[in-house]
Structures are given as C-alpha cells and as structure tokens.
Amino acid sequence: MAAGTIAHAPRKGYDGIVLAAPVTVPYARYSIESAHWWIGRALKGLTEAANIRRQDIDGFLVSSFSLFPDTAIGLTQHYGLSPRWLDHIPMGGASGVLALRKAARAVQMGDCTIAACVAGDTNHVDSFRKSLSTFSRFAQDAVFPYGSGGPNASFALICSNYMRMYGATREDFGKIAVAQRSNALKTPHALMKKPLTLDEYMSARLIADPIGLFDCVMPCAGAEAFLVMREETAKALGLPFARLLSTIERHNAYAEDAIQHRGGWTVDIAELYEMAGITPDRLSFIQTYDDYPVISLMQFEDLGLCKKGEAKDFIRQHSLTYDGTCPHNTSGGQLSVGQAGCAGGTLGTVEAIRQLTGQQLGGKVANARYGIVSGFGMITYDRGLASCAAILGAA
Amino acid sequence: MTEPLQRPKRKDPLKRTRLPTQPPELRSRRSHLLTRAAAEGVFGLPGCSDCGALHYPARDTCPECLSDNITLLPCSDLGVLAGTTTVQISNNVYFRERSPWRVGLAVLDAGPRVVTHVHGDVHEGDRIRLTWRLDKSGNAVAFAEPEKPTPNMSDDAELREMTLDPKFRRVLVTDGRTALGQAVAKAFADAGAAIIFCGIADPWKPWPGEEKLKAIPGVEIMPLDVTDTDSVNDLADEIGGRVDIIVNTGEHIRPGGITDRRGVNVAREEIESGYLALMRLAQGFGPALKFRGADGVNSACAWVNVFSIYAQMAWPTYGAYSAQQAAMLGASLSLRGELRPGGVRVVHVFTGPTEDEWFQPLPPPKVSHGQIAKAVVDALRGGVEEAWVGDIAQDFRARLQQNPKALEREIGQ
Taking CB atoms and an 8 Å cutoff, what residues of chain B touch A207? Predict the structure, then answer.
C-alpha cells in the first residue's frame, strides 16, 4: 500500500465505561516524603473511597516524574499489588486524560476489571530546579542553558506571540487567574488561599515578561487518583460514577508553526464531540490545563468553545467561576491549588469526576451534566507537545 | 545602542571576590557538534547527510528520513528574532547573579528555530545573525547578534560573558624578548588592554626591540624566567591576582629529528623552556586565574598558548621540536579542563613556520609575528578555543581532518 493511503479503522465508543472514586491527597508546598509515599496515600484513598481491597485492583497506571529510580513495576511490590494490566505514563499535563484513555480500553476489552489511575509527585526543597535541568534532552541541550528560566521563559515567548497575533491582553489572562483564585477559596486543600484582585494580578512582579507572578503555578507535592471500571462494577460497589463519552489525543502537531499558538486538539476536535454526541454549548463546565492562563485561552479556542483568536472575547463575555456562565477550573486549577507534578495533569480529570458525581470538595457547578477535561504539556523544547481531551457525562 | 564599557575602577583589596559559578553544562553527545563549531568559530546546524534536512536541537535520528547520518552542515546564519523575553527570576545561580537576562527565539532562514541569548541591540522582529559561542561552562550556546555590526557591540554584557575581549583587561605576555612576544604586546595595546605585563628574563641584559617594547602604552616590564620556578612564583605572588589573560609566547625552535642529535641536552633544554615552563606558569598563575573567573568587567578569562602545527603531527625535520610542542599541547589540554570550572578558557593558536631565524631555510609562505599576534587577539575577541593562522596552518588542518595517515606520509615532502 502506498504511503498516505492507509485507512484508519473507525473508532469504537466507550459504552459502559465509567470513572469513579475521585481521590486527592492534600497538597504540600514542600514534602520530605517520596513520590512512592504520595502515590501510596492516593492508593489507600482509592481503596477507602471504593470500599475495596488492594487485591481487587487488577489494573494499575502511574503518572509521575519523581519516582526515580523506580517505575510502575517496582511499585507493585512496594504496595503489594498483583495487577494483570500495568502502565506508566510520565506525561505531565496530559497525564489524566491519557490515563483514563488507556485504562478505559483495558477495562473495556477485559484486560482488567478495576484500573487504578494514580498521579503523584513529591517536591523536595531543591527538586524543582533539578527536575527542570534534566526534564528533557532538548531542554538540557537547548533551553536550560539560556537563562535557566524554566517553563516561565518558554511560555513567555508563546504568550507574547499569542498576544501579538490575537490581541489578547494581560487583563484577559488576569480574569482567568482571578476567577480561579475565587474558586480555590472554597477548595480546602488549595495552597493559595488569599483572594486575588485584578489589580494585584496586574501589578505583580514580572517573572519573564509578559509572564507575571500570578501567571505561574506553584510547584508542590500531591497526588490525584481515580478508578476506571465498567458501569455494572460501579453499581455492584455502590459507587457514584461519571461516564466516559469520548477522548482524543494528538502529539507534536503543527510542528511547522514558528511559535506555538494552537494545539493538537484542533486536528481531532470534530471527532471528540461527534463521539460524545453533544455540541460545545451543552457543556456544564470546562477543566483546562492552566499552566499558564494563555494556554487556557488557547484551549477555549481549540476545544471549539469559540473561534480561533476569539477566546479573549469569549472570556470577556462570560463569568468563569464555578457558579458563573462558563464554569472553568472549578477547584481553582493548578494556578491556585498548586502544581503537583503529574498530579497537576490529573487535577482537572478528578475535579470533573467530582462535579459530575456530586462529590465536589469546594464550589458546586449547578446541574452538571457534561464536562470537558483537557490536557496539555511536555514542553521539551519550545512548545507543549502533548494535547488531549475527554468529555465526561453524569450517570 | 550598546553603552560603551567603562574602565573598571581599581578594586578594593578588602572586598570579597565573587566566585565563579556556571551556567548549566550538561549536553548530549550530539549537541557537541555545536561545541566544536563554537570552539572553531564557525556556523552550521546539525543536519542529515542523507537528505540534507537541518534540525535543531541536535538529534540522533533525522526527523525527515530517519537516517542516523547526522553531522554539522554549513548553512546561512541569518534569521529573524521572532520573540524575546527577559528572565527576571532564574533557577540557576549563574543567571541569578546576572539577571535580568534576555533570551529569545530565532527563526533561521535555513528553517530551524533556535532558543538563543540575545544581544542588547536586537529586538523582536529584527533581522539577526546567529553565532555559536562558548559560554562559561565551555559549551556551545546560540547568540543572536545584529545582522550588521553596531557601535560598541562587543561591550554588550551578555556577549562579553561569551567572549574573552582584551578591552580593559590585564595581560601577561610571558616572553617579551621574542619577536612574537613583542608583536603580541603591541596587538593587546591596540585592543585596549589596560596593562600588558611583559616577562623578561634577566631584564638588565639588553634585548632587541627593547625601546620599542617599552614605548608601547600600558607595557610594564616584569622579571620572569620561565625556566626558573622561583622566578615564576615570585612574579605570580606579585601580580597573579591582577592578571586576566596569559599569553604564553615562549619559543625555542631547533631543527633536527630525534636520531640526528648526540645526547639529550638540547631536548632537555627544549622540554625545560617549553613543557616545564608551561607547567611552572600553570602552577604559579593557574590558581589565581581560576579564582577570579567571575571578578567583574576585568575578570580573569583566558590563557593562550601559541603552538606550532607540528604539535599535532610530528615533522621529522624538526622532530624533537615537534615532540616538545606535542608535550605542551597535551599539558595545555589538561590545563583547559582544569581552568574550565573557573570560567577561564584555554585558547590554542596553531601556526605554521614563522619568520624566525631558526626556520630560515624554509620556503614561503611563512607566518609573520604580527599575523600571529592578530590571530591571538581575534581569537579572544571572537571567544573561540582553536585558531589556525596562515595558509600553511589552514592547509595542514584540512589535511589532518581529512586523513591523518596521509598527512603523516606527506609531511615534509
């Protein structure tokens, strides 16, 4: 068969696959514990939330950056698990959606019955600097030696380019940050508990222009986890659940763009809504990957809530708090709760399950019916390589 | 426009000296293609020898055709500065001490996008020229410069971290008796060096060119006999803390292969005045240099050794001399590794036979001492690690790179 003529098989849906037992291990700015400890706490949380034994978990997926020298396999012995399906995806901001995507197929095909998806990382006093300097080969070779500004400097270039191209302003980014802080005030484990005003956002010190202090997330330790199973399993366990309706992922899209101003979502977005059988106006909330606000704006566009370049108008027209016209990052997101490594990429997924099952820890989205969770990340050189999204529905 | 650098005030000796720190130094092996380019002062990008695609950052596999034939390919160094930012808060001590630090993204006409350091005279949207530079860790970094030279361009603070510019620096020329030493002293005066210490063994003995040397602005004659450990240490005690650049200009050229002589006295002299002299100088001046690698505008920054090309491949007609040069080159490579943590670069300038009386029977082209002196200053200003002076040296280098065995057979023919 000649190149380019290979036909894609039609994708199958996720009928009967559900997500349950949302677990968050409260975050800490710094921790003396290991990632093994944080993931272990989340695992314990899952068994308690679902009222199951560790032996009932026969599928195990781990997302973590700070497990070295271990990977998921070593954790099976550490925790006394004997899964028949195992995966390890250290994929940062894409962790949550990619985890549920993989686990859903494993459960659907019968490779396992209860898949535990756990994301957790620790944060020692100097571990952020160390992990930055060795985050990727390209970063080590071609980014970190340039001012060592970390992601702040990389996203500064993306942010200023986006502002130039589409006319978004720092006030627009500020609206995201302020609304999320307001959401976080109701979330018990959020690290940022002081109200934030737009004035404070605007006058905060610059970190790498145009990125200011409140555009940045706070690295911390924490863990997020959930279970993937069939609907009948959830019912047998008596667990509230959310349905998995559709997912997409796409990596290293638009490699030709000089500076990233769109993500891989747009390649597959039509399929996402088609498979879920809904249109964007039916969404009750949206959980974007918010490391940095500009990336949230990009997602409003690329996830089809508005046209390209019009996210600024969209957010100017909406209120973004959990009780607003477009509830967004309803727990406070990473900007206000904290970024616990790979758990940061799972925060939105866990919050979506909470909202759709009425188990929210903070503000409640009224009548949540459908929600979208988006993942983004792995800026190994000049752009986030990973993009993914899932639409979940209430039972 | 770059503010012209001000001559630094005399340092208060009671003030603490800022210790050298380093920008991140870890690199992949492939990425050292660029370290080599920076060390030699050439431009190019990693690319695929099979399909010609250029890539950056350096890959081990071509993303166009999946070939593993990746090498440095020459290409245009021009492009556009697509974006910039100023890092106010860095995660690295070296940059924290030097913040705010500007970086940007260059989109090259050749295609690839390069995260880069940015010269103060270029701004978002400007056309730029990209160079590979060695940073204080000794590894290659990209530097976006104005497409055309701007006034005082080399005084830019970020650029001066990469270069070894003699302007306002204090230089020690180890042998002012030689024609080479005198030419180097003159070149440093012209390049704006603040003080040019010229070592002279037994200064009470007159030497050719004495009056002219003493008339060069900034020159200070210092007693220095590199064959005498006490003499080297005495001078290091006196001025070691004020020397920013050392240029080793000692020469001891004698013809003859190693079978031609009776006994080893001449060879011993060659080793004494070359190899051991380098070692004495390294022990005397090395520690202070290494300590002062981050000491402001006139920090210690470089050690230059001038070598014969025959250090790299013996020429039997001057076989013993070649061996002496090879021994010195070996020591100098070690010196390079030892001084690097201090942010001090060891520069090698290779030359073919010079207009020296001991090369008298050789045919042209020969290299003048003025040419070598210019090459030394150019190497420092350009911040390179290797320079080859004159046609013979360039030819030798090309042949050495292509096939060392062929050069071994051809040499002297």
Answer: 87-89
